[in-house]
Amino acid sequence: MTDTGPSTEPAGDPVEALRQRALHALTAARERTSTLTTCVEEPDLTAQHSPLMSPLVWDLAHIGNQEELWLLRAVGGREALRPDIDKVYDAFEHPRAERPSLPLLPPAEARHYVADVRNRVLDILEAAPLQGSPLVDAGFAFGMIAQHEQQHDETMLITHQLRRGPAALTAPPPGSAPADAAALPSEVLVPGGPFTMGTSTEPWALDNERPAHTRDVPSFHIDTVPVSNGAYACFVADGGYDDPRWWAPEGWAHIREHGLAAPLFWRREGTQWLRRRFGVTEPVPPNEPVVHVSWYEADAYARWAGRRLPTEAEWEKAARHDPVTGRSLRYPWGDADPAPEHANLGQRHLQPAPVGSYPEGASRLGVRQLMGDVWEWTASDFLPYPGFAAFPYPEYSEVFFGSAYKVLRGGSFAVDPVACRGTFRNWDLPIRRQIFAGFRTARTAAPESA
Question: Distance between CA atoms of 378 and 363, rounded to whole angstroms?
Fold first, then answer.
């Protein structure tokens, strides 16, 4: 069993190919940032739409500040452009709820700043050797910053979902479910045995994805598709939010304290569930993956269904393991970079696709929609892999390790492909519901199935 790296670099000069890959990733991220920050007026940029989120203008300038810190200063060795704002845009200095009170750059100045930084960065990228130190090898620092910007783009999209008022963003809906979706088996057996988890060769993988190591996972069954709105509505209708049997004690206390009775953005009107989605109120589509549920809600549903959440190792084995070759693939469908037929990624749509979609993106075992649509909660705490080493700074992962955070896998419709792969790890507090998170369930295989 081996961990496999990218197999899709263009032919020709490999350094120039990396340079073009970095340029494309940086450009795509900036185009998305522009879309998210030009579709609303200045008051919406400077307002805090939820204490859980920063003002959009903070995210905008923070993106530029991180790019200045890592690409202008660390890689390019340039003199600091705006050292006076470093602390204002340090995410660890100021909780999100406090950021509106900071001396933030106004929108016009923030836009000028991020554009100035980017112009200088492009000069550095043109001349950078992309080898010689861990920070620049294979263009890592440029890939890290592209991923960072895309992650904040997803954060800004969450802010747009929380924002009140008319719709500011539009996108075509995903297509209908494929013809075979209704006939899919409810679950897939993942055979027991060892597999390679994590990576040591993916050039832009972040520190918490490393190093590759062997995990022995007993046989288990996992849902073929994510849990749907319709299935989750059955849990609600059966009194799931009123029965403490299904809830972890902390989760039960949380939903009682806050009066939670359905996923975030759902409301009942007569006999119908409605939801608010990016400024539009619409019926909840029963065949979409449920989204905006916390870990506690996902865990409660799984218990109610007589199942459980998959562990992080189980999720990754279901996504990456090829039982024929024993290899761990980069993605469920293989080693090729994501394409539109594989997964709902990159904000092409502003909602999940129907369950059973993207058959060409299925894993070797036949599990669908493991990438894109919704982040999937797992049963696991966010912990380091054996041999973990913080790089290039401990605040990316290390400070979050422990039992307070739960791991999410797979990415959502809001995730760009540059920040989504079979080894990518996300994490959040188990109470969080504003994120684009859903789940699928699992069960341990009976001995005769193993």
Answer: 18
3-state secondary structure of 150: helix
Q: Which residue has the tokens 């479910």?
A: 177
Note the Cα 386 to chain centre separation in Å. 23
Which residues touch 173 (CB under 8 Å, ≥6 apart)? 349, 351
Please state whether 138 falls in left (phi above 0), alpha (psi between -120 and 50) or beta: left
Q: Are residues 30 and 81 in the same domain?
A: yes
- Residue 126 and residue 223 share a domain: no
Categorise residue 57: left if φ over 0, alpha if ψ from -120 to 50, beta otherwise: alpha
pLDDT digits (tens, 9 = 90+) for 354-395: 999 999 999 999 999 999 999 999 999 999 999 999 999 999
386 lies in some domain:
yes
Q: Give the start-end residues of each E strand in 180-290.
A: 187-190, 193-197, 213-217, 220-223, 266-269, 272-277, 280-283
**Which H helix or E strand runs over 406?**
strand 402-409
Q: In total, how many domains does the chain have?
A: 2
Sign of CA dihedral 307, 423, 410, 50: positive
Average pLDDT, the chain: 96
Mean pLDDT of 204-231: 98
Taking the mean position of all CA atoms in its chain, how far away is CA 391?
A: 20
Domain assignment of residue 18, given as a range = 14-162
C-alpha pair distances (Å), 41 with each of 159, 237, 254, 418: 14, 41, 36, 29
Residue 309 CB: number of other CB atoms within 10 A? 23
Identify whether residues 55 and 203 lie together within a single domain: no
Burial class (CB in 10 A: 0-12, 13-18, 19+), 443: middle
d(CA 240, CA 243): 6
Do residue 63 and residue 208 come from a single domain?
no
Specify the pLDDT at position 449: 53
Task: Provide the pairing of β-strand 442-444 with 220-223.
Answer: antiparallel
Q: Considering 162, 194, 210, which residue would you say is the last residue of a domain? A: 162
